[in-house]
Amino acid sequence: MHQTEILSNIIEKIKGSKKSLVLSHLNPDGDTLGSMLALGAVLKESGHVVDHVVSDDVPEVLKFLPFAEYVKRPESEGLQKNYDLAFSLDCGSIKRLGSAKSLWFNAGATINIDHHISNEGFGNINWIEPEATSTGQVVYWLTKELKVKITKEIATLFYITLLTDTGCFSNSNTNAEAMKWASELILLGAEHEKVYKKVFMEKPYRAVKLFGAALNNLSLLEDGMLAWTYVDNGLMKSLSAMSEDAEDIVDYMMRTKGVKVGVFFRDDLSEIKISLRSNTNEIDVSRIAASIGGGGHKRAAGANIKAPFDEVKKTVLDKVLYELKSRK
Ligand SMILES: [Mn+2]
User: Fold this and answer.
1) Could you tell me the distance, in angstroms and rounded to a whole number, from the CA of residue 136 to the centre of ligand 1?
2) What spacing in Å lies between the alpha carbon of 138 and ligand 1's midpoint?
């Protein structure tokens, strides 16, 4: 199922190298961090010296992840220089690497591993598997091929990529393959109960309050097929909320009966962050996101726009309404 030639190229690169850099995307989630930390451990096991770099902070709810203590910022002291290899995990576009971009460009070879259909192919080697449940699953295939032992910690990291990217086994990518993989990981010792509890059942109070405020702002359009809401910077500030606290709001909106598309806006003063979700294969939100400079998957995508909120709101909602109307 995976692309054998690309895979053997990557294996060859890994075998011929010693110093590696592994990178997650801005505003890191369970998939990008889980796949980066798992790959870091696998490369170490293959004899590499590895640096783990993210341009944003690791969200509080993900700090418990095995090896999360290794994560550094691009500007941190003590990073190696002249990497043989740089790996980008779960980043659809080079922009998503943030200020780690300069480290990426200085590496001997760059390897882009992802499952976003919209991936721009910005690496020397690009291994993009849109059918993979998570980027973590692509790293899992690589690990198997490298014949590195999957420890309990690595299995737990893979499990979190699966759990978060399937929306706790509820999204359209929750198929027999995903369930089979979950079973394999649990047999390998993945701490599945702990992961679920830590990520989903220990939200900070401020995040739960933010959730409530966002749901209070919820509106429906187009006979209830479009749900949208927003939070502004004033609200975020009054709750001392952080961007990570707003992560799940858009997914929760999609529980509304009859909703086909959900849009969530967050105005953080410097720009408007837009999250898009689709409940139906008829509407591909990655195309809508791409038309405003973002990207993602068919059913989950996003973009950031520097423009006044009312303008952005109108542009995005009009695009979604157009899609909904043309499919009636
Ligand atoms: Mn992902």
Assistant:
1) 8
2) 10
Q: At what angle do helices 176-187 and 192-200 cross, to 10 degrees?
A: 110
Q: Where are the domains of the chain?
A: 4-200, 205-325
- Distance from the alpha carbon of residue 130 to the mean position of ligand 1, in angstroms: 10
User: How confident is the model at residue 1, as a pLDDT?
Assistant: 47
Distance 275 CA to ligand 1 centre (A): 14
Query: HSE-up of 145 (CA within 13 Å, CB side)?
Result: 20
Ligand 1 centroid distance, CA of 256 (Å): 24
Please provide the CATH number assigned to the domain covering 4-200. Answer: 3.90.1640.10
Range with lowest mean pLDDT among 3-7, 304-308, 316-320 = 3-7
- Cα of 299 to ligand 1 centre, how many Å? 12
Helix axes 176-187, 152-165, angle to 10 degrees: 150
pLDDT in tens, 241-264: 998 899 889 999 999 999 999 999
Confidence of residue 2 (pLDDT cuts 50, 70, 90): low
Q: Please state which CATH number belongs to domain 205-325.
A: 3.10.310.30
